Amino acid sequence: MVLSWIPVFIALCFLVTNVATESTKCAAKNFGHGSVVCVCNSTFCDSPSSIGLPPVGQYSSYLSDMAGGRMEPGQGAFGLNSTGSGLRITVNHFQKYQRIRGFGGAMTDAAAINIMSLSPGAQDQLLRQYFSSEGIGYSVVRVPMASCDFSTRLYTYADTPEDYNLEHFTLAPEDTQHKIPLLQRAQSMSPVPLSLLASAWSAPAWMKTNDALIGKGSLKGKPGGKEHKSWAQYYIRFFEEYAKYNVTFWALTTGNEPSAGKMTNYSFQALGFTPEEQRDWVALDLGPALHASSFPNTHVLILDDNRLLLPQWAKVVLSDVHAAKYIHGVAVHWYLDHLVPAEISLGTTHHIYPEYYLFGTEACAGWSPLDRGVKLGSWDRAEEYAHDILEDLNHYVVGWTDWNLALDQNGGPNWVKNFVDSPIIVDAENDIFYKQPTFYAMAHFSKFLWKESQRVGVSANLKTELECTAFIRPDGAVVLIILNRSSSEVRFEVWDPDVGYFTSTAPAHSLLTLAWNSH
Protein backbone atom coordinates (compact mmCIF):
# COMPACT_ATOMS: atom_id res chain seq x y z
CA MET A 1 0.00 0.00 0.00
CA VAL A 2 2.81 2.38 0.92
CA LEU A 3 4.46 1.75 -2.51
CA SER A 4 1.31 2.30 -4.57
CA TRP A 5 2.52 5.73 -5.68
CA ILE A 6 5.57 4.34 -7.53
CA PRO A 7 3.81 3.40 -10.82
CA VAL A 8 2.14 6.81 -10.86
CA PHE A 9 5.50 8.53 -10.22
CA ILE A 10 7.14 6.56 -13.03
CA ALA A 11 4.28 7.42 -15.39
CA LEU A 12 4.58 11.11 -14.49
CA CYS A 13 8.35 11.02 -15.06
CA PHE A 14 7.80 9.46 -18.48
CA LEU A 15 5.16 12.07 -19.30
CA VAL A 16 7.42 14.96 -18.27
CA THR A 17 10.32 13.49 -20.25
CA ASN A 18 8.11 12.95 -23.27
CA VAL A 19 6.70 16.48 -23.10
CA ALA A 20 10.21 17.93 -22.81
CA THR A 21 11.31 15.92 -25.82
CA GLU A 22 8.31 16.98 -27.88
CA SER A 23 8.77 20.63 -26.91
CA THR A 24 12.20 20.69 -28.52
CA LYS A 25 10.99 19.32 -31.88
CA CYS A 26 11.35 21.45 -35.01
CA ALA A 27 8.34 23.65 -35.81
CA ALA A 28 8.60 22.84 -39.50
CA LYS A 29 7.55 25.09 -42.37
CA ASN A 30 7.84 24.19 -46.05
CA PHE A 31 8.56 26.94 -48.59
CA GLY A 32 8.81 24.53 -51.53
CA HIS A 33 12.61 24.28 -51.84
CA GLY A 34 12.99 20.57 -51.15
CA SER A 35 12.81 20.40 -47.36
CA VAL A 36 11.74 22.46 -44.35
CA VAL A 37 12.96 25.26 -42.10
CA CYS A 38 12.46 25.26 -38.34
CA VAL A 39 10.59 28.32 -37.06
CA CYS A 40 11.77 29.99 -33.84
CA ASN A 41 10.53 32.94 -31.78
CA SER A 42 11.25 34.52 -28.41
CA THR A 43 9.64 31.70 -26.44
CA PHE A 44 10.20 28.60 -28.57
CA CYS A 45 12.98 27.02 -30.61
CA ASP A 46 13.88 23.41 -31.25
CA SER A 47 17.17 22.46 -29.72
CA PRO A 48 19.41 19.38 -29.59
CA SER A 49 20.23 20.49 -26.03
CA SER A 50 23.23 18.98 -24.26
CA ILE A 51 24.18 15.67 -25.79
CA GLY A 52 25.38 12.94 -23.46
CA LEU A 53 26.79 9.58 -24.48
CA PRO A 54 25.50 6.17 -23.35
CA PRO A 55 27.68 3.65 -21.48
CA VAL A 56 30.44 1.72 -23.25
CA GLY A 57 28.89 -0.86 -25.53
CA GLN A 58 26.15 1.47 -26.74
CA TYR A 59 26.08 4.34 -29.25
CA SER A 60 24.03 7.48 -29.87
CA SER A 61 22.84 8.61 -33.29
CA TYR A 62 21.58 11.95 -34.58
CA LEU A 63 19.88 12.16 -37.96
CA SER A 64 18.89 15.05 -40.23
CA ASP A 65 17.45 14.46 -43.68
CA MET A 66 15.61 15.91 -46.63
CA ALA A 67 12.41 14.27 -45.37
CA GLY A 68 12.39 16.73 -42.45
CA GLY A 69 14.29 15.04 -39.65
CA ARG A 70 16.40 17.49 -37.64
CA MET A 71 18.99 16.03 -35.26
CA GLU A 72 16.63 13.16 -34.47
CA PRO A 73 18.15 11.17 -31.57
CA GLY A 74 18.52 7.42 -31.43
CA GLN A 75 20.48 4.74 -29.59
CA GLY A 76 21.73 1.24 -30.21
CA ALA A 77 24.11 -1.38 -28.91
CA PHE A 78 27.38 -2.88 -30.14
CA GLY A 79 27.72 -6.59 -30.75
CA LEU A 80 30.80 -8.76 -30.56
CA ASN A 81 30.39 -10.27 -34.02
CA SER A 82 30.13 -8.89 -37.53
CA THR A 83 27.01 -9.52 -39.58
CA GLY A 84 29.52 -10.50 -42.27
CA SER A 85 27.70 -8.95 -45.18
CA GLY A 86 27.58 -5.69 -47.06
CA LEU A 87 29.27 -2.38 -46.44
CA ARG A 88 31.55 -2.08 -43.41
CA ILE A 89 33.01 1.21 -42.14
CA THR A 90 36.06 0.69 -39.92
CA VAL A 91 37.43 3.24 -37.45
CA ASN A 92 41.21 3.04 -36.97
CA HIS A 93 42.32 4.65 -33.70
CA PHE A 94 45.99 4.32 -34.60
CA GLN A 95 45.88 6.52 -37.71
CA LYS A 96 46.02 10.04 -36.27
CA TYR A 97 45.79 13.35 -38.10
CA GLN A 98 44.95 16.99 -37.32
CA ARG A 99 43.18 18.37 -34.25
CA ILE A 100 40.06 20.56 -34.41
CA ARG A 101 40.24 24.27 -33.52
CA GLY A 102 36.58 25.12 -33.97
CA PHE A 103 33.52 25.95 -36.06
CA GLY A 104 31.55 29.16 -36.36
CA GLY A 105 30.26 32.05 -38.42
CA ALA A 106 30.77 35.77 -39.05
CA MET A 107 29.42 38.73 -37.08
CA THR A 108 29.13 41.06 -40.06
CA ASP A 109 27.32 44.39 -39.89
CA ALA A 110 24.42 42.71 -41.69
CA ALA A 111 24.29 39.80 -39.25
CA ALA A 112 24.36 42.15 -36.27
CA ILE A 113 21.67 44.42 -37.77
CA ASN A 114 19.40 41.42 -38.38
CA ILE A 115 19.88 39.96 -34.91
CA MET A 116 19.23 43.39 -33.35
CA SER A 117 16.04 43.78 -35.44
CA LEU A 118 14.39 41.10 -33.29
CA SER A 119 12.90 41.56 -29.83
CA PRO A 120 15.35 41.06 -26.94
CA GLY A 121 13.90 37.62 -26.23
CA ALA A 122 14.21 36.49 -29.83
CA GLN A 123 17.75 37.91 -30.01
CA ASP A 124 18.73 35.79 -27.01
CA GLN A 125 17.04 32.77 -28.54
CA LEU A 126 19.02 33.19 -31.77
CA LEU A 127 22.35 33.66 -30.00
CA ARG A 128 21.64 30.63 -27.79
CA GLN A 129 21.11 28.47 -30.87
CA TYR A 130 24.69 29.14 -31.93
CA PHE A 131 26.65 29.71 -28.74
CA SER A 132 25.05 28.28 -25.59
CA SER A 133 25.41 24.71 -24.32
CA GLU A 134 21.91 24.00 -25.64
CA GLY A 135 22.98 25.26 -29.07
CA ILE A 136 25.30 23.85 -31.72
CA GLY A 137 28.69 24.62 -30.21
CA TYR A 138 30.02 27.55 -32.24
CA SER A 139 33.36 28.67 -30.83
CA VAL A 140 34.74 30.77 -33.72
CA VAL A 141 33.46 34.18 -34.82
CA ARG A 142 34.94 36.03 -37.78
CA VAL A 143 34.68 39.81 -37.36
CA PRO A 144 35.11 42.12 -40.37
CA MET A 145 37.30 45.13 -39.60
CA ALA A 146 35.14 48.08 -40.75
CA SER A 147 32.82 47.71 -43.72
CA CYS A 148 32.43 44.95 -46.27
CA ASP A 149 29.71 44.21 -48.81
CA PHE A 150 27.50 43.04 -45.92
CA SER A 151 27.35 46.56 -44.53
CA THR A 152 24.87 49.33 -45.27
CA ARG A 153 27.57 51.87 -46.18
CA LEU A 154 31.24 52.29 -47.11
CA TYR A 155 33.57 53.22 -44.26
CA THR A 156 36.89 52.45 -42.56
CA TYR A 157 38.18 53.42 -39.12
CA ALA A 158 40.69 55.95 -40.47
CA ASP A 159 39.09 57.90 -43.29
CA THR A 160 41.00 61.13 -42.57
CA PRO A 161 43.48 61.58 -45.47
CA GLU A 162 47.22 61.39 -44.73
CA ASP A 163 46.61 60.28 -41.13
CA TYR A 164 49.64 57.98 -41.13
CA ASN A 165 49.83 57.96 -37.32
CA LEU A 166 46.12 57.01 -37.14
CA GLU A 167 45.40 59.81 -34.71
CA HIS A 168 41.79 59.91 -35.92
CA PHE A 169 41.28 56.14 -35.80
CA THR A 170 37.85 55.40 -34.33
CA LEU A 171 35.47 52.47 -34.25
CA ALA A 172 32.14 52.87 -36.04
CA PRO A 173 28.63 52.78 -34.53
CA GLU A 174 28.30 49.39 -36.21
CA ASP A 175 31.01 48.15 -33.82
CA THR A 176 30.03 49.88 -30.59
CA GLN A 177 26.25 49.60 -30.94
CA HIS A 178 25.88 46.28 -32.75
CA LYS A 179 28.81 43.89 -33.11
CA ILE A 180 30.54 44.39 -29.76
CA PRO A 181 27.38 44.09 -27.61
CA LEU A 182 26.38 40.93 -29.48
CA LEU A 183 29.85 39.42 -29.16
CA GLN A 184 29.75 40.12 -25.43
CA ARG A 185 26.35 38.44 -25.14
CA ALA A 186 27.49 35.46 -27.19
CA GLN A 187 30.54 35.04 -24.97
CA SER A 188 28.41 35.22 -21.83
CA MET A 189 26.31 32.31 -23.15
CA SER A 190 29.21 30.17 -24.35
CA PRO A 191 30.66 27.46 -22.10
CA VAL A 192 34.05 27.99 -23.79
CA PRO A 193 36.07 31.11 -24.65
CA LEU A 194 35.14 32.27 -28.15
CA SER A 195 37.96 32.43 -30.68
CA LEU A 196 37.53 35.72 -32.56
CA LEU A 197 39.10 36.16 -35.98
CA ALA A 198 39.62 39.63 -37.50
CA SER A 199 39.60 40.20 -41.27
CA ALA A 200 39.87 43.49 -43.13
CA TRP A 201 38.36 44.06 -46.57
CA SER A 202 40.04 47.33 -47.52
CA ALA A 203 42.52 49.87 -46.26
CA PRO A 204 41.39 53.52 -46.18
CA ALA A 205 41.12 54.98 -49.70
CA TRP A 206 43.97 57.45 -49.14
CA MET A 207 46.39 54.55 -48.54
CA LYS A 208 45.50 52.89 -51.84
CA THR A 209 46.67 53.15 -55.43
CA ASN A 210 43.13 53.66 -56.77
CA ASP A 211 42.06 56.09 -54.01
CA ALA A 212 38.89 54.04 -53.47
CA LEU A 213 37.66 51.29 -51.16
CA ILE A 214 36.28 49.22 -54.04
CA GLY A 215 37.68 47.80 -57.27
CA LYS A 216 41.27 47.04 -58.22
CA GLY A 217 43.69 48.68 -55.84
CA SER A 218 46.68 47.93 -53.62
CA LEU A 219 48.58 49.78 -50.94
CA LYS A 220 50.66 52.69 -52.22
CA GLY A 221 54.42 52.36 -52.08
CA LYS A 222 56.18 49.15 -51.15
CA PRO A 223 56.37 46.87 -48.09
CA GLY A 224 58.38 48.67 -45.45
CA GLY A 225 57.00 52.02 -46.64
CA LYS A 226 54.74 54.38 -44.70
CA GLU A 227 51.43 53.14 -46.13
CA HIS A 228 52.32 49.52 -45.41
CA LYS A 229 53.40 50.39 -41.86
CA SER A 230 50.23 52.40 -41.23
CA TRP A 231 48.13 49.52 -42.50
CA ALA A 232 49.85 47.16 -40.07
CA GLN A 233 49.27 49.62 -37.20
CA TYR A 234 45.60 49.80 -38.22
CA TYR A 235 45.26 46.17 -37.08
CA ILE A 236 46.91 46.98 -33.76
CA ARG A 237 44.61 49.96 -33.20
CA PHE A 238 41.60 47.76 -33.97
CA PHE A 239 42.67 45.25 -31.32
CA GLU A 240 43.32 48.05 -28.81
CA GLU A 241 39.88 49.58 -29.29
CA TYR A 242 38.05 46.23 -29.01
CA ALA A 243 40.10 45.34 -25.93
CA LYS A 244 38.57 48.38 -24.19
CA TYR A 245 35.29 46.42 -24.33
CA ASN A 246 36.98 43.24 -23.06
CA VAL A 247 36.75 41.70 -26.53
CA THR A 248 40.00 40.05 -27.58
CA PHE A 249 41.07 38.20 -30.71
CA TRP A 250 42.63 34.79 -31.22
CA ALA A 251 43.74 35.50 -34.80
CA LEU A 252 43.79 37.82 -37.77
CA THR A 253 43.90 37.20 -41.47
CA THR A 254 46.15 39.22 -43.74
CA GLY A 255 43.09 40.54 -45.59
CA ASN A 256 39.95 39.21 -47.22
CA GLU A 257 40.44 37.78 -50.72
CA PRO A 258 43.63 39.61 -51.73
CA SER A 259 43.40 38.23 -55.28
CA ALA A 260 40.21 40.27 -55.79
CA GLY A 261 41.97 43.61 -55.57
CA LYS A 262 44.55 42.43 -58.10
CA MET A 263 42.69 40.32 -60.62
CA THR A 264 39.03 41.28 -60.33
CA ASN A 265 37.37 44.65 -60.51
CA TYR A 266 35.25 43.97 -57.41
CA SER A 267 32.17 46.13 -57.04
CA PHE A 268 32.72 46.07 -53.27
CA GLN A 269 35.57 46.55 -50.81
CA ALA A 270 38.88 44.89 -51.69
CA LEU A 271 42.61 45.30 -51.16
CA GLY A 272 44.93 43.63 -53.62
CA PHE A 273 48.06 41.69 -52.70
CA THR A 274 50.15 39.31 -54.74
CA PRO A 275 51.61 36.47 -52.67
CA GLU A 276 55.01 38.20 -52.94
CA GLU A 277 53.57 41.48 -51.63
CA GLN A 278 51.76 39.69 -48.81
CA ARG A 279 54.98 37.87 -47.89
CA ASP A 280 56.97 41.09 -47.68
CA TRP A 281 54.23 43.03 -45.83
CA VAL A 282 54.07 40.31 -43.17
CA ALA A 283 57.88 40.15 -42.88
CA LEU A 284 58.56 43.88 -42.82
CA ASP A 285 55.41 45.43 -41.33
CA LEU A 286 52.62 43.31 -39.88
CA GLY A 287 54.77 40.72 -38.13
CA PRO A 288 57.08 43.20 -36.40
CA ALA A 289 54.11 45.47 -35.49
CA LEU A 290 52.26 42.60 -33.81
CA HIS A 291 55.41 41.38 -32.08
CA ALA A 292 56.04 44.84 -30.60
CA SER A 293 52.39 45.36 -29.58
CA SER A 294 50.31 44.18 -26.65
CA PHE A 295 49.07 41.32 -28.86
CA PRO A 296 52.20 39.34 -29.78
CA ASN A 297 50.45 35.97 -29.45
CA THR A 298 47.75 36.74 -31.99
CA HIS A 299 47.77 34.12 -34.73
CA VAL A 300 48.43 35.30 -38.28
CA LEU A 301 46.59 33.47 -41.08
CA ILE A 302 47.65 34.16 -44.65
CA LEU A 303 45.65 33.92 -47.90
CA ASP A 304 42.01 34.19 -46.66
CA ASP A 305 41.00 33.42 -50.23
CA ASN A 306 39.87 30.50 -52.37
CA ARG A 307 41.77 27.28 -51.83
CA LEU A 308 42.41 26.89 -55.58
CA LEU A 309 45.24 29.42 -55.04
CA LEU A 310 47.03 26.70 -53.08
CA PRO A 311 49.68 25.42 -52.87
CA GLN A 312 51.34 28.19 -54.92
CA TRP A 313 50.37 31.04 -52.57
CA ALA A 314 51.65 29.16 -49.52
CA LYS A 315 54.91 28.28 -51.28
CA VAL A 316 55.67 31.94 -52.01
CA VAL A 317 54.88 33.20 -48.49
CA LEU A 318 55.95 30.31 -46.26
CA SER A 319 59.23 29.58 -48.02
CA ASP A 320 60.49 32.95 -46.78
CA VAL A 321 61.84 32.55 -43.25
CA HIS A 322 61.40 36.24 -42.43
CA ALA A 323 57.64 36.07 -43.09
CA ALA A 324 57.07 32.47 -42.01
CA LYS A 325 58.25 33.05 -38.44
CA TYR A 326 55.23 35.31 -37.82
CA ILE A 327 52.65 32.98 -39.46
CA HIS A 328 50.54 30.25 -37.87
CA GLY A 329 48.16 29.08 -40.56
CA VAL A 330 46.55 29.35 -43.99
CA ALA A 331 42.93 30.55 -44.29
CA VAL A 332 40.78 29.25 -47.13
CA HIS A 333 37.37 30.09 -48.64
CA TRP A 334 35.12 27.50 -50.26
CA TYR A 335 34.13 29.28 -53.48
CA LEU A 336 35.17 27.44 -56.66
CA ASP A 337 36.35 24.44 -54.63
CA HIS A 338 35.12 22.12 -57.39
CA LEU A 339 37.73 23.49 -59.82
CA VAL A 340 40.72 21.96 -58.03
CA PRO A 341 40.76 18.61 -56.17
CA ALA A 342 41.23 18.99 -52.43
CA GLU A 343 44.26 16.72 -52.43
CA ILE A 344 46.06 18.99 -54.89
CA SER A 345 45.29 22.22 -53.01
CA LEU A 346 44.83 21.39 -49.31
CA GLY A 347 46.64 18.05 -49.25
CA THR A 348 49.74 19.28 -51.04
CA THR A 349 49.94 22.40 -48.87
CA HIS A 350 49.71 20.33 -45.69
CA HIS A 351 52.35 17.86 -46.83
CA ILE A 352 54.81 20.63 -47.75
CA TYR A 353 54.11 22.78 -44.67
CA PRO A 354 52.65 20.48 -41.98
CA GLU A 355 53.56 22.90 -39.16
CA TYR A 356 51.04 25.49 -40.47
CA TYR A 357 47.37 24.64 -39.98
CA LEU A 358 44.65 25.03 -42.60
CA PHE A 359 41.49 26.85 -41.53
CA GLY A 360 38.22 27.51 -43.39
CA THR A 361 37.26 31.16 -42.93
CA GLU A 362 34.33 31.77 -45.27
CA ALA A 363 31.54 29.88 -47.01
CA CYS A 364 27.93 30.60 -47.94
CA ALA A 365 25.21 29.21 -50.14
CA GLY A 366 23.40 31.33 -52.71
CA TRP A 367 26.51 33.15 -53.96
CA SER A 368 26.46 31.77 -57.50
CA PRO A 369 24.71 33.84 -60.19
CA LEU A 370 23.03 30.59 -61.27
CA ASP A 371 21.57 29.94 -57.80
CA ARG A 372 21.44 33.31 -56.09
CA GLY A 373 20.10 34.42 -52.73
CA VAL A 374 17.93 32.88 -50.02
CA LYS A 375 16.20 29.52 -50.53
CA LEU A 376 14.18 28.68 -47.45
CA GLY A 377 14.36 24.96 -46.80
CA SER A 378 16.90 23.98 -49.46
CA TRP A 379 18.33 20.54 -48.61
CA ASP A 380 20.72 20.70 -51.59
CA ARG A 381 22.54 23.54 -49.86
CA ALA A 382 22.81 21.56 -46.62
CA GLU A 383 24.44 18.76 -48.59
CA GLU A 384 26.84 21.22 -50.23
CA TYR A 385 27.90 22.42 -46.77
CA ALA A 386 28.31 18.92 -45.36
CA HIS A 387 30.23 17.67 -48.41
CA ASP A 388 32.65 20.59 -48.29
CA ILE A 389 33.22 20.28 -44.53
CA LEU A 390 33.85 16.54 -44.85
CA GLU A 391 36.24 17.07 -47.75
CA ASP A 392 38.10 19.81 -45.86
CA LEU A 393 38.35 17.79 -42.65
CA ASN A 394 39.61 14.78 -44.56
CA HIS A 395 42.34 17.00 -46.05
CA TYR A 396 43.78 18.41 -42.81
CA VAL A 397 41.58 21.50 -42.29
CA VAL A 398 41.16 22.21 -38.55
CA GLY A 399 38.03 24.37 -38.57
CA TRP A 400 35.27 25.71 -40.81
CA THR A 401 33.69 29.16 -40.54
CA ASP A 402 30.38 29.99 -42.16
CA TRP A 403 29.72 33.52 -43.46
CA ASN A 404 26.87 35.70 -42.05
CA LEU A 405 25.37 34.40 -38.79
CA ALA A 406 21.99 35.81 -39.85
CA LEU A 407 20.49 37.59 -42.88
CA ASP A 408 17.07 38.94 -43.79
CA GLN A 409 14.70 37.25 -46.23
CA ASN A 410 16.36 39.02 -49.17
CA GLY A 411 19.81 37.80 -48.14
CA GLY A 412 21.00 41.19 -46.88
CA PRO A 413 21.36 43.97 -46.08
CA ASN A 414 24.19 44.35 -48.55
CA TRP A 415 25.02 47.80 -49.90
CA VAL A 416 26.06 46.43 -53.30
CA LYS A 417 23.14 43.94 -53.44
CA ASN A 418 25.46 40.92 -53.34
CA PHE A 419 22.72 38.87 -51.68
CA VAL A 420 23.40 35.31 -50.44
CA ASP A 421 21.91 32.72 -48.07
CA SER A 422 22.54 32.09 -44.37
CA PRO A 423 21.88 29.26 -41.88
CA ILE A 424 19.53 31.61 -40.03
CA ILE A 425 17.11 33.91 -41.84
CA VAL A 426 15.37 36.66 -39.84
CA ASP A 427 11.77 37.83 -40.34
CA ALA A 428 11.86 40.94 -38.17
CA GLU A 429 8.28 41.97 -38.99
CA ASN A 430 6.94 38.83 -37.33
CA ASP A 431 9.73 38.63 -34.71
CA ILE A 432 10.72 35.13 -35.83
CA PHE A 433 13.70 33.48 -37.44
CA TYR A 434 14.11 30.40 -39.59
CA LYS A 435 16.80 27.79 -39.06
CA GLN A 436 17.78 26.53 -42.48
CA PRO A 437 18.91 22.99 -43.35
CA THR A 438 22.44 24.46 -43.53
CA PHE A 439 22.16 25.29 -39.81
CA TYR A 440 21.76 21.58 -39.10
CA ALA A 441 24.52 20.67 -41.54
CA MET A 442 26.82 22.80 -39.38
CA ALA A 443 25.37 21.28 -36.19
CA HIS A 444 26.35 17.74 -37.14
CA PHE A 445 29.98 18.87 -36.96
CA SER A 446 30.13 21.83 -34.56
CA LYS A 447 28.02 20.22 -31.83
CA PHE A 448 30.14 17.07 -31.66
CA LEU A 449 33.70 17.91 -32.72
CA TRP A 450 35.02 19.73 -29.69
CA LYS A 451 38.26 21.66 -29.73
CA GLU A 452 41.27 19.30 -29.73
CA SER A 453 39.23 16.43 -31.21
CA GLN A 454 41.65 14.47 -33.39
CA ARG A 455 40.83 12.95 -36.74
CA VAL A 456 41.52 9.24 -37.00
CA GLY A 457 41.48 6.75 -39.82
CA VAL A 458 38.21 5.59 -41.34
CA SER A 459 37.80 3.21 -44.27
CA ALA A 460 35.13 1.27 -46.15
CA ASN A 461 35.48 -2.28 -47.44
CA LEU A 462 33.35 -1.57 -50.53
CA LYS A 463 32.95 1.31 -52.95
CA THR A 464 30.18 3.49 -51.57
CA GLU A 465 28.43 6.78 -52.13
CA LEU A 466 28.62 7.51 -48.41
CA GLU A 467 31.08 10.24 -47.36
CA CYS A 468 32.46 10.06 -43.83
CA THR A 469 35.04 11.23 -41.32
CA ALA A 470 35.93 10.07 -37.81
CA PHE A 471 37.37 11.83 -34.76
CA ILE A 472 38.30 11.01 -31.18
CA ARG A 473 37.35 13.78 -28.76
CA PRO A 474 39.35 14.88 -25.71
CA ASP A 475 36.85 12.96 -23.52
CA GLY A 476 37.68 9.76 -25.42
CA ALA A 477 34.41 9.61 -27.36
CA VAL A 478 34.47 8.50 -30.99
CA VAL A 479 32.46 10.62 -33.44
CA LEU A 480 31.64 9.26 -36.90
CA ILE A 481 29.86 11.62 -39.33
CA ILE A 482 28.25 10.19 -42.48
CA LEU A 483 26.70 12.01 -45.43
CA ASN A 484 24.46 10.22 -47.93
CA ARG A 485 23.83 12.45 -50.95
CA SER A 486 22.28 9.61 -52.94
CA SER A 487 18.56 9.02 -53.45
CA SER A 488 18.80 5.52 -51.95
CA GLU A 489 18.93 4.33 -48.36
CA VAL A 490 22.30 2.76 -47.49
CA ARG A 491 22.65 0.10 -44.82
CA PHE A 492 26.09 -0.38 -43.31
CA GLU A 493 28.03 -1.88 -40.44
CA VAL A 494 30.43 0.04 -38.21
CA TRP A 495 33.45 -1.70 -36.69
CA ASP A 496 35.43 -0.12 -33.88
CA PRO A 497 38.05 -2.74 -32.89
CA ASP A 498 38.04 -1.33 -29.35
CA VAL A 499 34.29 -1.86 -28.86
CA GLY A 500 32.74 -4.09 -31.49
CA TYR A 501 30.20 -3.92 -34.31
CA PHE A 502 26.83 -2.34 -34.95
CA THR A 503 24.62 -1.89 -37.98
CA SER A 504 22.93 1.34 -38.99
CA THR A 505 21.18 2.98 -41.92
CA ALA A 506 21.78 6.27 -43.73
CA PRO A 507 18.45 7.28 -45.29
CA ALA A 508 18.42 8.90 -48.72
CA HIS A 509 19.69 12.49 -48.63
CA SER A 510 20.71 12.42 -44.99
CA LEU A 511 23.40 13.47 -42.56
CA LEU A 512 24.10 11.15 -39.65
CA THR A 513 26.34 11.66 -36.61
CA LEU A 514 27.17 8.56 -34.55
CA ALA A 515 28.99 8.82 -31.22
CA TRP A 516 30.11 6.35 -28.57
CA ASN A 517 32.54 5.86 -25.71
CA SER A 518 35.46 3.68 -26.69
CA HIS A 519 36.62 2.87 -23.16
From TrEMBL:
Residues 100-449 form the Glycosyl hydrolase family 30 TIM-barrel domain. It is an enzyme of class 3 (hydrolase). One of its GO terms (cellular component) is lysosomal membrane. Pathway: Lipid metabolism; Steroid metabolism; cholesterol metabolism; Sphingolipid metabolism. It is found in: Lysosome membrane. InterPro entries: GH, GH30_C, Glyco_hydro_30, Glyco_hydro_30_TIM-barrel. It catalyses: a beta-D-galactosyl-(1<->1')-N-acylsphing-4-enine + cholesterol = cholesteryl 3-beta-D-galactoside + an N-acylsphing-4-enine; a beta-D-xylosyl-(1<->1')-N-acylsphing-4-enine + cholesterol = cholesteryl 3-beta-D-xyloside + an N-acylsphing-4-enine; beta-D-glucosyl-(1<->1)-N-octadecanoylsphing-4-enine + cholesterol = cholesteryl 3-beta-D-glucoside + N-octadecanoylsphing-4-enine; beta-D-glucosyl-N-(9Z-octadecenoyl)-sphing-4E-enine + cholesterol = N-(9Z-octadecenoyl)-sphing-4-enine + cholesteryl 3-beta-D-glucoside. Residues 453-514 form the Glycosyl hydrolase family 30 beta sandwich domain. It comes from the Eukaryota. This is Glucosylceramidase. The lineage of its organism: Eukaryota, Metazoa, Chordata, Craniata, Vertebrata.
